[in-house]
Amino acid sequence: MTKSRFSIAILLAATPLPAFAQATETPMADMKCMMAAGSIDPASPKEQQDAMMLMAVFYVGKVYGRNPAFDVSGFVSQNKAELEAIDIGAELKRCTSEFGKRGEALSKLGG
Closest Cα to residue 97, out of 21, 17, 2? Predict the structure, then answer.
């Protein structure tokens, strides 16, 4: 291997690649999570309702964290058809996975 190829190989190896999860970190992905969490049946146990409310707030917080001026109402209005057509089961599976991992990480902070 020549010196220049070796240098390029080292640079490529040292360059961090974006995590897969970051590919889904878009306002649309997070708003789909908010909508899925908000779809809980009002007859569900209170603990489940509370967990879904926390999850909805978590995903809205992610959007605001990336863009404090984000217009949630405007986004929902502009994307109403796509947001209402979500596969709630699939979105809950995807969203609860991330939400659970974040919750586990936070619980470890407590000791």
Answer: 21
Residues contacting 27, CB < 8 A, separation 6+: 63, 66, 67, 70, 75
Cα separation, 83 vs 79, in Å, equals 6
From the centroid of its chain, how far is CA 9? Answer: 33
Percent of the chain whose predicted confidence (pLDDT) is above 70? 77
Domain boundaries, the chain: 20-109
This prediction has a pTM of 0.74
Type of residue numbered 54: L
Residue 30 CB-density burial (10 A; 0-12 exposed, 13-18 middle, 19+ buried): buried
